[in-house]
Specification:
The complex is a heterodimer of chains A (about 350) and B (about 550). Chain A is built from 16 helices and 2 strands. The two termini of chain A are about 30 Å apart. The longest helix of chain A is centred in the first third of the chain and has 24 residues. Chain A has 2 domains: about 160 residues, no CATH class; about 160 residues, no CATH class. In chain A, helix 1 runs antiparallel to helix 11 and helix 6 packs across helix 16. In chain A, strands 1-2 form a two-stranded antiparallel ribbon. By secondary structure, chain A is mainly alpha-helical. With about 550 residues, chain B is of the alpha/beta class. Among the domains of chain B are: about 150 residues, NADH-ubiquinone oxidoreductase 51kDa subunit (Rossmann fold, 3-Layer(aba) Sandwich); about 160 residues, no CATH class. Chain B contains 17 helices and 17 strands. In chain B, strands 1-14-13-17-15-16 form a 6-stranded mixed β-sheet, sandwiched between helices. A 4-stranded antiparallel β-sheet of chain B has the order 2-8-7-4, with no helix packed on it. In chain B, strands 11-10-9-12 form a 4-stranded parallel β-sheet, with helices on both faces. Classes of the chains: A mainly alpha (about 350), B alpha/beta (about 550). The interface between A and B is large, with 40 and 64 residues.
Chain lengths: ~350, ~550
């Protein structure tokens, strides 16, 4: 019988891939704790627990063996990405609802691991921002802006018992993307807006540093070949080009490309979310088109749309186009003529 | 001298394990009491047996003659008696039996008289026929009859590449051969070059074989260039090596000769040297025995030696071994039966142990990570082909260029979901071949049916014409009789009216006769040329399906 190859590369499995992705998030999480307090740890923990619970429940319902699929780590990655994309210190049921949409609806109702056309974390995010816009705009304020930074126990308390007597204003603020948009529409001067305390040297105070740490983690992913350079590069290039063109056109109305790169979910999206292999384009040219357009859409939604950030909707919209993009960007096969007919879907 | 090397995309770096078997010199297997010589040791038609049970044969005597064009001869490995001519286990992934000549050795090892070949002066066609009758086939694994590849006519070959890459893990038979017999290999190369009229001769060797590189460099004159290539599986694939050394891509479905390159394995060059310089047909080859075995190494083995005897010579499999592999771990296959003999195609026997070849973990769903596409040396998108093969949508798999897959195994090797991708591709290919055969059968049935309809129609028409002719004849006769009755017999011939009617009658008869003649008796064997061409094409594909996939010389 021919069962070749009889050897497989070492230390290589879906679990290893997922764990490496999680490891690459660590610098960003540390920066988050540094600038916003330990609240993020609570949402990471909650989302992970909910995700594993839902995953196990659905696997049982579907009659799929628990062990290999629970240990693949994909639910954990989804949970952590969603937790990092959501405001911290939000009520626990917000995380529960988000994870339900991510793991149950976006992933398992479409067939489970590898079968989902839409990025699960972004489906969870989109479901929440459409359903609970108020909670989605109350972000933990950074050190230096917040009156108080809840410690770990206070964070648990806030998440499970609610704010109680403390006013949410004491520890939350709007995001810089939101602030910029609303105040520019009110006709405020760009320099005045950027002078507010929640703005840092380039984006949101604290947030810009977290974004830099996502960049560091993301570059580790690329250098370890867990993802290719195409998607992060094209996504960031798409943002830079679109935001740059708008900024050149009217600097009073449109923030600089650097602001767009370092605020909201841009860096997380570029390296960790748009790169989700299941839902992203797979050919080299396809990745460039997919991520470039996602970057473009991100800025367009941020600028002209009604939502505080555009990353989630941009990626979901481009997920729709993936089969089409892949079909028309098949690489040339060895020995085939350049420009010849390719495989078509 | 440095040469610009090209790099194909993808490839993998499996652990080499070369040092397990490469340290000791090639050992000669002792004479065995019994040899089992398959008549099919090459790609193409099996040789036609020239001996019968009870015949006495000598070493080097042709016992199977090339049958058809793509075929080559088979020879007796020693002197003795033919004790059986029967189906026997052979080393083939199917595990099926094949016709073998079983020779009981007389212990004398008497040889026929070998005649050296005056290759510089022999007529090229005669030289090729001699090489065919000496049974030469490519020793890299594809075992294509060498005399065909040595035919330069119309091919316009400017570059001869000698494949010493040996990129599969564990295998070291080419390495040892190059270290020990470099001068002889290069003499074989000289013959190849003469026959092909190649301008340039390149010998590609992976950089994990420094001793072989040094030996070959020392033996090579100024006209032959030994090129060191980076160790990367599957560099030893014929098309891959040709690309690395020249940058020329073999067109899809074609051979390297389409871009002016002919590739031979180093072992084939050595065999050619023995054929021309010693007059010795292909009787033996070097085989690596490695893995979980007492004394791993390389053995010069007579073709027809049962694997069990080779393992015994290597001290036997160590306790805890679990089966054997034929060939390397990337493209080889499980040996079903130790009784199977070594053939021209077998370059390596690996004794498996769970520590060396752990059981494969169960597969998870594909996450489209694209690792397979990045590893694919043919620039395919294996995960897309897999997706459709799994859904049994083979047409779609094919549209992703399934048939450009060389089954090198890189995709399966790197898959984090441990999906046996190559198994799916082999399955999809065989299903497509099967369907084409069905389609051929259906086409043939339709052609037969259509011909039957045509025949019935024609017969009906013939009958109608005959009837018409008869009616006309009767009418004419009646008219003539009537005329004769009126005018009288003597004048009747001159009667213009009767004359005219007679002419009409004659014309009708001629027509009927002609129509009858034009229809030669036919049956369904006489198919239109298009159908015959289709049959030939499908037969060719089937022949290809029976053999190993088109991974040319060497691995």
């Amino acid at each position: 019988m021919n069962g070749s190859p009889y050897i497989l590369s070492q230390n290589n499995s879906v679990t290893v891939v997922m764990l490496k992705v999680l490891a690459a998030l660590i610098p960003g999480v540390i920066a988050h704790v540094w600038f916003f307090g330990p609240g993020i740890l609570v949402s990471l923990l909650l989302c992970s627990a909910f995700a594993i619970g839902f995953e196990a429940f659905i696997l049982l319902m579907r009659g799929i063996p628990l062990k290999p699929f629970l240990s693949d780590g994909s639910a954990l990655v989804t949970a952590c990405l969603l937790a990092l994309a959501l405001p911290t210190l939000a009520p626990w049921w917000l995380y529960l609802t988000g994870i339900f949409f991510a793991v149950v609806v976006a992933k398992h109702l479409y067939g489970g691991l590898g079968q989902n056309p839409f990025n699960p974390a972004m489906v969870g995010y989109a479901a929440l921002i459409v359903s609970f816009p108020v909670y989605m705009t109350q972000w933990a304020a950074p050190v230096g802006v917040a009156h108080t930074i809840p410690n770990l126990w206070e964070a648990f308390d806030l998440v499970f018992a609610g704010a109680g007597s403390i006013s949410p204003d004491a520890y939350t603020s709007a995001t810089v993307l939101d602030t910029w948009k609303t105040q520019v529409r009110l006709g405020k001067d760009a320099a005045d807006i950027l002078g507010q305390p929640i703005f840092g040297w380039a984006g949101g105070r604290g947030q810009e540093s977290v974004a830099m740490m996502y960049l560091v983690g993301g570059l580790l992913l690329v250098s370890n070949r867990l993802t290719t350079w195409h998607i992060p590069f094209a996504f960031l290039a798409g943002i830079t080009a679109t935001a740059g063109a708008l900024h050149l056109f009217d600097p009073a109305q449109h923030a600089s490309p650097l602001f767009h790169l370092l605020s909201g979910g841009a860096m997380l999206g570029a390296f960790f979310i748009a790169t989700d292999p299941v839902t992203a384009a797979s050919t080299p040219r396809g990745k460039l088109i997919y991520a470039g357009l996602a970057g473009f859409l991100t800025v367009i939604i941020r600028t002209f749309g009604g939502y505080p950030d555009g990353v989630a909707f941009a990626i979901l919209l481009m997920n729709v186009a993936v089969p089409f993009i892949d079909a028309y960007t098949q690489p040339r096969v060895f020995g085939h003529k350049r420009g010849g007919k390719r495989g078509q879907a | 001298m440095t040469r610009k090397l090209f790099t194909f995309n993808g490839g993998v770096h499996p652990e080499g394990h070369k040092d397990v078997s490469s340290a000791t010199p090639i050992a000669l297997m002792p004479l065995l009491p019994r040899y089992v010589v398959p008549l099919r040791q090459h790609i193409g038609a099996p040789a036609r047996a020239l001996v019968q049970v009870g015949d006495v044969v000598l070493r080097g005597q042709m016992i199977g003659a090339a049958e058809g064009y793509v075929s080559t001869a088979i020879h007796a490995p020693t002197s003795g008696r033919v004790v059986a001519l029967e189906p026997h286990e052979v080393p083939h992934p199917s595990g099926l039996t094949d016709l073998c000549v079983v020779i009981e050795s007389d212990g004398l090892d008497q040889a026929v008289e070998f005649q050296t070949l005056d290759w510089r002066n022999l007529d090229p066609s005669a030289l090729r026929n001699r090489i065919r009758d000496m049974g030469l086939a490519g020793l890299g694994g594809a075992v294509f009859p060498s005399f065909i590849k040595l035919n330069p006519e119309g091919a316009g070959i400017d570059t001869l590449i000698l494949n010493g890459a040996e990129c599969e893990p564990w295998i070291t038979c080419d390495d040892r051969l190059m270290r020990e017999r470099a001068a002889e290999i290069l003499q074989g190369v000289a013959v190849m070059r003469h026959m092909l009229g190649a301008r340039e001769v390149l010998i590609g060797i992976e950089d994990n074989k420094p001793e072989a590189i040094a030996a070959m460099r020392a033996a090579a004159g100024g006209e032959v260039e030994v090129v060191v290539v980076p160790t990367l599986y599957p560099t030893g694939g014929g098309k891959q090596l040709a690309y690395i050394l020249t940058g020329r891509e073999t067109p899809t479905g074609g051979r390297s000769t389409d871009v002016g390159i002919q590739v031979f394995n180093v072992g084939t060059a050595y065999a050619l040297y023995r054929a021309v310089a010693l007059g010795e047909p292909m009787l033996s080859r070097v085989v690596t025995v490695t893995g979980h075995v007492a004394t791993p190494g390389n053995y010069e083995v007579r073709l027809g030696t049962p694997v069990a005897d080779l393992l015994q010579a290597a001290g036997g499999a160590l306790p805890g071994s679990v089966g054997k592999l034929v060939g390397g771990p990337m493209m080889g296959f499980d040996l079903e039966d130790n009784a199977a003999p070594l053939t021209k195609a077998v370059n390596c026997i690996i004794v498996k142990h769970p520590d060396l070849f752990p059981a494969k973990p169960s597969a998870l769903p594909c996450i489209r990570c694209g690792a397979c596409a990045r590893a694919c040396p043919a620039d395919l998108q294996p995960f897309e082909m897999y997706w459709f093969a799994r859904a049994k949508d083979f047409g779609k798999s094919q549209s992703y260029d399934l048939f450009d897959c060389i089954e090198c195994g890189c995709c399966s090797f790197v898959c984090p979901s441990h999906i046996p991708l190559v198994d799916f591709f082999r399955f999809a290919k065989s299903e497509i071949w099967e369907r084409e055969r069905h389609k051929h059968d259906a086409d043939q049935a339709r052609a037969r049916h259509e011909f039957k309809d045509f025949r019935l129609e024609r017969e009906k028409k013939e009958k109608a014409e005959k009837l018409a002719a008869k009616v006309a004849e009767n009418k004419a006769r009646d008219a003539a009789t009537a005329a004769a009755a009126v005018t009288g017999g003597a004048e009747s011939a001159a009667d213009p009216e009767a004359e005219r009617k007679k002419a009409i009658l004659q014309a009708a008869l001629d027509r009927a006769k002609k129509a009858k003649e034009s229809v030669t008796p036919q049956n369904t064997e006489n198919l239109p040329p298009t159908v015959e061409k289709q049959i030939a094409e499908i037969e060719a594909r089937r022949a290809q399906a029976d053999t190993r996939p088109e991974h040319e010389e060497g691995k």
